[in-house]
Amino acid sequence: MKEVKLFSGTNSRYIAEPIADFYGYPLGKLIVNKFSDGEMQTIIEESVRGASVFFIQSTFAPADNLLELLLLIDSAKRASAGYITAVIPYFGYARQDRKDKPRVPISAKMIANIIESAGANRVITMDLHADQIQGFFDIPVDHLRSEAIFIPYLKKQKLDNVLFASPDVGGVKRARTYAKYFEKDLVICDKERRRANEVASMTVIGNVTGADVILVDDMADTAGTLCKAADVLMEKGAKSVRALCTHAVLSGKAYENIEKSQLQQLIVTDTLPLKKKTDKIKVLSCAQLFAKAIRNTHEYRSIAALFVD
Fold first, then answer.
1. Annotated binding residue 37
2. What CATH number did the domain enclosing 264 receive?
3. Most buried pick, 54, 180, 185, 238, via CB within 10 A?
4. Which pTM value belongs to this model?
5. Residue 109 catalytic?
6. How buried is 98 (Cβ within 10 angstroms: 0-12 exposed, 13-18 middle, 19+ buried)?
7. Range in 69-73, 123-127, 303-307 with the lowest mean pLDDT
8. Which parts of the sequence bind ATP (predicted)?
């Protein structure tokens, strides 16, 4: 069996280090140099010849994080690595997964092409914005689910009359997974959006009177949709509103929006680093899940075993 080598990108050490701890291997040594104009040079400081190499890097903004991952993959390929896996807890540019208007890119497909062209043999990621993005790759994609993290947490909470809700029609399948697991009802918040990151209006489909509502979404950017949904649900008679969100992008006025909203708690994973701490945001670690996925991949064991039945 090939030797395992784990490496971290510059801005993902916060999650790569606990992943390595759970796996039981130290992170490998590398250097990322920058020339005065910002151009990057990646140097892997140990042999990877014939090894099974895992690069851990979320591709959040700025684009340097993606470029660094690509350069690291190319470095390993040219150093005769045996097998290269890109471990991408947060897969950036996933929101543009189809051509919904004239003259726009399908960015998720383009990024998939670039990662393959750089030399990756496999991708491990979690909660892609759309499931079909797995098909944009012609290499294996292990698509982990945050249910494996959120469901055990929810089981420990003592909530009375729980309902699960989708903050938009597009997220119904995601919310229904939780509703089916806990055998609870599902409600839908139907939103109208006039432009990106701005919700014009929202309608609640279903009865939420007296319920502890849990919104389910894959990411929170400005958190406008989640906050608007929470406020509308409370107006409709909900007892409390919490939200589960895998990727805490939280840009712009997100923290201000969350503090002002009627969201009691926003529960997220650490696929992205928080810019600041707040009592309203609870972070659950996905490091152990990714460590198990890396081990199962290396040992040719099932990834499906990591999903919640």
1. yes
2. 3.40.50.2020
3. 54
4. 0.93
5. no
6. exposed
7. 303-307
8. 37-39, 95-96
